[in-house]
Description:
The protein is α/β, with parallel strands linked by helices. It contains 7 helices and 10 strands.
Amino acid sequence: MNVLIAGAGRLGTQIAQVLSAARNEVTLIDSDDDRVAELQGRLPGVLLVAGDACEPALLEHAGALTTDVVIATTGDDEDNLVISLLAKRQFSVPRVAARVNDADNAWLFDARWGVDVAVPAATPLISLIEEATGATDTVALLRLSKAGVDVIETAITPRSRAVGQALGEVGLPEGTVVATIVRDGQPTVPDPAIRLRAGDELLLVSHSATEQEIHAAFQ
């Protein structure tokens, strides 16, 4: 799958890393030359392009004509709408997803602006990728074939038995580690002493456990 991502902030960079690791062809655009230079060498397999994704010529240069998915993740709703409209109307991109930064603008993010999927800013990373790409199997999408591991997400709900437990007290399946805990929208270092709360979202890496086994450890 060819994916073009506009916006090399934290979110756009994370999406690029995950999709590239899953062996997709990924191009990441940002208008900040310094940001693009900073990322050089840090995103193996990702093509970095400096320029304004609101410019049709830049999108064409970045490969919009042969792209399967465009994901607009800039911090500006107006830019995300313009990118989406160009992707859909001028380049006929099959699937266009756009981040909604301000909830008051959500009503604009629809087919009139070329948006197939509008994604609120607070959407968990894996759910966002799943929605944006149209994948129905997160585990298959995020399988890191080369390393032989899967990246799996699970969420802690108020009814989860893991609420209040220290992370180190949770019995994880063999060959499974917690990569990060996303709390209040921010990634947190998965210290074994950290106590899990309702609303926490965990990203785990495993070379053998199934998604169901991992969910069962927390739910």
